[in-house]
Amino acid sequence: MNFDFSEEQVMLRDSVARFIQDDYSFDARRKIAASDTGMSAEHWQTFAELGWLSVPFAEEHGGFGGGPVDVMVMMEEFGKGMVLEPYFATVILFGGLLQRAGSTEQQATYIPRIVEGNCLGAFAFTERQSRYELADVKTTATPDGDGFVLNGEKVVVYNGANADTLIVAARTGGEQCDEDGISLFILDAGAAGIDRMSYALMDGQRAANLVFKDVRLPADALLGEKDKAYPVMSWVVLEACVALAAEGLGIMGQLNTKTLEYTKQREQFGVPIGSFQALQHRMVDTFMSYEQTKSLLYRAVCTLEKEDEDPARDIHALKVMLDRAGRHVHSEAIQLHGGMGLTDEMDIAHYAKRLMMINATFGDGDHHQAQFNALSFA
Amino acid sequence: MDTSFAPEDMAFRDEVRAFFADAYDDELRARLQHPTEYREAIIDWQRRLYDKGWIAPGWPKEYGGAEWTPTQNFIYETERAAAGVRDVIPFGLKMVGPVIYTFGNDEQKARFLPRILRSEDWWCQGYSEPGAGSDLAALKTRADLDGDAYVVNGAKIWTTYAQHSDWIFCLVRTSNEGKKQQGISFLLIDMASEGVKVNPITTIDNHHSLNEVEFNNVRVPVANLIGEQDKGWTYAKALLAHERTSIAGVADSRRALAELRRFAEQEVNAGKRKIDDPLFQKRLSDIEIELMALEYTDLRVLASVAAGGAPGAESSLLKIKGTEIQQAIQGLRMDLAGYYQGVLPTDLDPQALGHEFGSSARQAYMYGRAATIYGGSNEVQKNIIAKAVLGL
Ligand SMILES: Cc1cc2nc3c(=O)[nH]c(=O)nc-3n(C[C@H](O)[C@H](O)[C@H](O)COP(=O)(O)OP(=O)(O)OC[C@H]3O[C@@H](n4cnc5c(N)ncnc54)[C@H](O)[C@@H]3O)c2cc1C
């Protein structure tokens, strides 16, 4: 039993850390966030060159063949740097679905493009009424010749503004919230009949609402088995929650470290505020929140690595912890910075915003607690 | 013990309702939301209150106040919040006004109070400095006497609405002798004076309400000194206790909770309304129970003040609990907004966006972090209670 990283994992972690250290200062990030696309195409190419875009993919498609631990070490570093480039949307979600559901041809077409940095993907699943319910799908794909016609709307699609390729969840059978009858389709984001409305989110990323009006899809746009996408989506979402938790942990660590530094250096009443026992205990509490989150993250990753165990319960627990601990840590970080914590100029609040967005992605703590309870008290 | 309303209180309540329905009209509401029009709109609204005689409920009648009873205050606040009517800008009416009528001389009262009542001057509060936040008495902005004027040098920070202000009331250092609280004076400074510079600070909700205010050899007539030189700390302390009672915000939190209920009836997960979700219900009722208690704590404090007591450490309790409740409501509102909680203001209307309150939830949550920091941070309030109430 050990919790050590392999040599390769340490190298991967260090390479991301070095990039952030050298090229992704908070000021540099701020400029990227303020740009039209909210991401840097140049950095994306660097990610490709350094092999990061290949990490979770199979070797036959030019991937690195990495597992959950590899993804975790990268995502944690991305969190520390609040990296804006759509790694999560393109590699983890879009790429994850391709890996799990794509046909050999689809994988051979798209994965090398992702790996080379030539594909920005998005997974369009949320609808205005669906909240966190993955099976709540009203968008329809109806048979048309050998293909389909897509109609409906997806909202707050991550990386929706920049994506060139989409995977869309649509209903091919069943009723609105049925798990059965959902299918995935892969299509060009510029296809005729797609109306894209982009906007910025508080963490800097660009999302979009996508309206599909009689979008014609060829038969080979279907990704995976018709009507049976729900289990695949759920699985990829569970894996994605773990990746997000790793990113969140990186952020929590930064918030704690920066707050600790600040309280050692900020003086009031003639002493560093970190010398007040009232604040010391608060920082001990945030430290423990961080450690507990890390433990549940490791627990979930170890379960995922085992492959023969159902990781759902561990992952729901992790997402609950991420909510409670994340809020705790970011609230305290802002509070202990006083007025400085309220400024846009400092990174503290930006970490807080990203943590909130992570929390909302695929369901907040209450949502996952209900699922945890359903598994525990069935 | 009795908290029922007398018939004249009921009549007052009806009058307040009718006034808001009439005077706080839709046109005004729209202008108050507008980024470039809100300053003028606020002034318009405050003039309507002035015409009605309600602009300064807490001021003594001899200075143009209404001298309401605690019950009337309670009714007014409840109705105001329920109608979604914004509170007045506090800096003139609730902060410097009371200092001027309590500690100022006759000339100052005649010069400043009517203009505050008529919203002719917009005021801001210049206390905090980069090195003096919780430890306010460590402030360094200097005022050196030179003939008939003080020469002011230094910088204030976190000054809310300095960019809109005609006047700033400042705590400045006039002496370095003795305890640091002893050499502080209370000075009124015209923002149009030569040497005053306002630098904007953007906050985490992407708004500009905060500023840094620099003073570079600013000459301030001695006539603008409140009370005695070096006694400013005493005046400021009296005001701080005042500021904290109004910070509890019970009525506004009640309205925010009601709004939350409405949103929870609209938000649906897997076909089930959030309002019917037991986890959501627990979180909502946890907050409401705290608020029910705070409402009565507030009334107890108000009643004791009306009976002649001074708002002391109790106001610290109101501030801590009031702001904790506000933040809990803001957090729950974020959760209700789901994926939409991160949306920044966009050109898309709510219909195209698909959501009503995501962006406002974000704004309230983010800016709401400030409430436990300003007006004396909650940690400082706990220190006050520990010392003044518990004798620790
Ligand atoms: C939105 C906003 C609006 C504001 N508007 C104004 C305004 O209009 N005019 C004005 O003058 N000021 C204003 N302020 C400033 C506000 O009053 C100060 O931010 C506040 O007093 C805290 O000071 P600080 O920011 O320097 O934090 P610090 O004093 O540095 O405090 C940092 C942290 O240490 C804690 N701490 C400090 N001392 C102790 C102690 N002894 N024991 C335990 N914990 C302690 C604090 O509680 C806080 O969590 C505003 C602030 C904000 C955020």
From TrEMBL, chain A:
Residues 122-215 form the Acyl-CoA oxidase/dehydrogenase middle domain. It comes from the Bacteria. InterPro entries: Acyl-CoA_Oxase/DH_mid-dom, Acyl-CoA_Oxase/DH_mid-dom_sf, AcylCo_DH-like_C, AcylCo_DH/oxidase_C, AcylCoA_DH/ox_N, AcylCoA_DH/ox_N_sf, AcylCoA_DH/oxidase_NM_dom_sf. Keywords: FAD, Flavoprotein, Oxidoreductase. The keyword Flavoprotein applies. Pfam families: Acyl-CoA_dh_1, Acyl-CoA_dh_M, Acyl-CoA_dh_N. Belongs to the acyl-CoA dehydrogenase family. This is Alkylation response protein AidB-like acyl-CoA dehydrogenase. The lineage of its organism: Bacteria, Pseudomonadati, Pseudomonadota, Gammaproteobacteria, Cellvibrionales.
TrEMBL record, chain B:
Belongs to the acyl-CoA dehydrogenase family. It comes from the Bacteria. Its cofactor is FAD. GO terms for molecular function: flavin adenine dinucleotide binding; oxidoreductase activity, acting on the CH-CH group of donors. One of its GO terms (cellular component) is plasma membrane. Residues 124-218 form the Acyl-CoA oxidase/dehydrogenase middle domain. This is Alkylation response protein AidB-like acyl-CoA dehydrogenase. Coiled coil: none annotated. Residues 230-390 form the Acyl-CoA dehydrogenase/oxidase C-terminal domain. Keywords: FAD, Flavoprotein, Oxidoreductase. InterPro entries: Acyl-CoA_Oxase/DH_mid-dom, Acyl-CoA_Oxase/DH_mid-dom_sf, AcylCo_DH-like_C, AcylCo_DH/oxidase_C, AcylCoA_DH/ox_N, AcylCoA_DH/ox_N_sf, AcylCoA_DH/oxidase_NM_dom_sf, Mycobact_Acyl-CoA_DH. It comes from Chromatocurvus halotolerans. Residues 7-119 form the Acyl-CoA dehydrogenase/oxidase N-terminal domain. PANTHER family: ACYL-COA DEHYDROGENASE (PTHR43292), ACYL-COA DEHYDROGENASE FADE29 (PTHR43292:SF3). SUPFAM superfamilies: Acyl-CoA dehydrogenase C-terminal domain-like, Acyl-CoA dehydrogenase NM domain-like.
